[in-house]
Amino acid sequence: MNNVVTRREELQQLRARADMATEYAAEMAALRSRKDYLAEYDYFLDLLGLLPHPERFRERFKKPLVGLTCVQAPLELVDALGFHPYRLCAHASSRQRLVSSQLPSLACPLLKSIRGSFHLDESLERLCDLTVIPGSCDWMAKLPETLEGRAPGVHVMELPRIRESERGQRRWLEEVRELKRVLEKRAGRSLSRQALLRSLETHARAWRAWHLLLDARSQSLISATWTTVISHAFLMGDTEGWTDRVNRLLRVLREQPPLSGTRVFLAGSPIFFPNLKVPQLIEEAGMHIAGDELCSSERILAGPALGRDRSVDGLLRSLAEQYHLGCSCPSFTDTPRRLANLLETLHQRRISGVIYHVLKGCHPYDMDSYRYEKIIKERGFSFIRIETDLSREDGKNLLVRLEAFRDLLHERS
Amino acid sequence: MNLTRSRLLVQSLSFGILTYGGRFGLNLGHALPCLSCPYVNGCGGHCFLMALQGSFWGVQASLSALAGPRGLETLRMLALFILLALQLSKLWCGWICPFGTLQDALTWVRSRLGIPEARWSWATSDRLRWVKYIFLLLLLAIPLMIANLGLHGDYGLPFCQICPAKPLMPLFTGDTAHLAIDTTNAITTAMTVLSLLLAGGFLAGMFFRERFFCIFCPMLALLGLVQRFGLVRFTKNVNACVGCGSCARSCPLEIRTVRAELVKRDVMSPECMACMTCADSCAHDGSLSFHWLKWRIFASSAVGAARRFRKGLFS
User: Fold this and answer.
1) Rounded CA separation A52/A54 (Å)
2) Considering only residues 8 to 67 of chain B, which have any Cβ-Cβ distance to chain A shorter than 8 Å?
3) SS3 of B83, please?
4) CB contact, 8 Å: B117 with chain A?
5) B246 at interface of A, judged by CB pairs closer than 8 A
């Protein structure tokens, strides 16, 4: 009987790997066949192409891997201790199918995709020496238990939901200090101030390049589909190489004609490779995403963690605050700035419509969408809420709604 | 504009002028809104706090004296102080004060040694900020008590007697006289011992905590009272702020109200000393800005924040 089960599991794994390879290859081919494709994107596509091939990834990057979910764990700290930070988030339907019978049908598709990756015997996720999970939303809080020993090491960070209190800020600093201790133990060495400073500078340069690329997107020089590819590739390659390639791309983009399309803002749940359905449909409907607030896009980098205390502990405090206070994840109890920032961006970038993306099962963004719709409309902007998952079946339906939204924006302009 | 370099340049020049200017015939008067210590031989100008204490003491708080020449002199100096304070407001503290520059130098040394900064709770910070008002009250009240309630004259210039600048700043001219204990009588002995103890304590405090003395400085309290009418404005675009806390972390006095403000545009708090480090550290274009009348002096920008790293801020 056990043999039968083992054989079935082997077959399931083989099928999943084949599905995954097909899914990634199909998305890659679709991207390469786009009209706005440039040779400069190959570097980022090649990095994403490593996702289904962990052995190639390990050959290219010899460092031990630390897998991270969400955007609250400081990358600089992981990098400074000699680990390669790797973002576990992906939108792969082939992966989520693997665990469809083990998780609620209405569970967050992102969680299912991550959990599915751990189900594969040979995946980058399983190769991670340590998996760091800040318990941002309820799904992420439950993820460690559902892994059932499939990750070699899991470290959970308890994320304080209330940030405006001294208690909350202290608790998160303690969590960051604890992460440092855990990583030091794994690395077998102490965190040096110089290494942390170098990592801070490296990431500040990456943030600067990313910021300029977002400016280029705001000027319609690059589409959101490509910026999503580039943002996902950020933690696939080495940070300096990625920064260098983004800067090179910027030089090329400045010579490109601007893209056409009605300018819109994309809010809500994150979007990860290989499912870029939402930005692709928005562009197909004749709109250009000139700004977003996604943790998978504009918010992938927390920004330069500046502070006056330059001791190791002072730098840790800067990192803790930058990643905690500066994060606009809706899982926090106090997010008064998120909506104000969104409205400010609409004014600054001359955007008249907001597309609010809700991944079915992503409750915090879903909860916020109703309040946001009310306030955004009251301020005179157009608003559309689209709810979807990782399937492709609703593509045509969504496209019709998005085209109607574009027409509405045209009428109002 | 490289704010760090510009400020360092202005601070160095101010330190030189205010500490040694008198030796070259420079006299900026007795109403300067910064701790330019009058006990420094050959200084270029005097801190207004000495004049403020001395005037009240000399006038003896009588109306007839106020109407006389000494009263007029008091009013002239007060008017001059207000004029200077209105022109540059807190820039006197963040950019010009020589005692502030000394504190920044100590912080630089600690920072290079990688020694963590001393920290305390929000509640302690909130309590400590009232001490400077108590100092201000005492430095006004004691001279009046000498004049009207028979308090001994050796309590005169009470703040100057215990101000840590008195024994420390003359050292820059090689003068160690103020490190001695004055045993003329019990009061002078007690005051000089207290002065040295406070100077030692503040020196340690200033090493382990940036701008430690400014938390207690009555000049900052005095400037805080007139800042509302000053020409220097510190404003925030509350909608552009993401609340990352860079401003509070970079602020030498760890002012939290700038980050916390969600509505008001004017964010200059009584504790602010207009060093502009908060705006320099803010990575959001135009979120924080300083103006002199309608002219912008400095505003936060992504380019500026990234440059601070590139120029080796932390190296």
Assistant:
1) 6
2) none
3) helix
4) yes
5) yes
Residues B213 and B206: beta-carbon distance below 8 Å? yes
Q: State which residue of chain B sits closest to A303, comparing Cα positions.
A: B283
* Mutate which: A202, A214, A239, A306, vs B, most B CBs within 10 A: A306
What pLDDT is stored for residue A101 in this prediction?
86
Cβ-based contacts of A337 with chain B (< 8 Å): 241-243, 262
* For residue B69, pLDDT beyond 90: no
Distance CA A180, CA A58 (A): 24
B264 Cβ under 8 Å from any chain A Cβ: no
Averaged pLDDT for residues B147-159? 85
Q: Which residues contact B265 (CB under 8 A, 6 or more apart)?
A: B235, B236, B237, B238
Write down the residue that tokens 């015939």 correspond to: B25
Question: Could you tell me if the ipTM is greater than 0.85?
Answer: yes
pLDDT tens readout for residues B179-194: 999 999 999 999 999 9
B83 at interface of A, judged by CB pairs closer than 8 A: no
CATH number for the domain formed by residue range(s) A7-209: 3.40.50.11890
Burial (CB count within 10 angstroms: exposed 0-12, middle 13-18, buried 19+), residue B59 = buried
Q: What share of chain A is helix, strand, coil (3-state, %, to 5)?
A: 55, 10, 35
- Which pLDDT tens digit goes with each residue over B227-285? 999 999 999 999 999 999 999 999 999 999 999 999 999 999 999 999 999 999 999 99
d(CA B295, CA B290): 9
Which residues make Cβ contacts (< 8 Å) with residue B192, sequence separation at least 6?
Answer: B161, B180, B181, B182
- Whether residue A211 and residue B238 make contact (CB cut-off 8 A), yes or no, is no
User: With an 8 Å Cβ cutoff, is B109 touching chain A?
Assistant: no
> What are the boundaries of each domain within chain A?
7-209
Run of H or E including B233: strand B232-236
CA B232 – CA A83 distance, rounded (Å): 47
- A 10 A CB-CB count for B41 gives 14
Least confident of A200-204, B8-12, B46-50, B141-145: B141-145
For the ranges A123-127, A145-149, B148-152, B187-191, the maximum mean pLDDT occurs at B187-191
The pTM for the full model equals: 0.91
* Mean of pLDDT values over A95-113: 88
Total residue count of chain B as it appears in this document: 315
Chain A residues at the B interface, defined by Cβ less than 8 Å, are: 164, 166, 193, 197, 200-201, 204-205, 207-208, 211, 302-315, 317-318, 321-322, 325-326, 328, 336-337, 340-341, 343-344
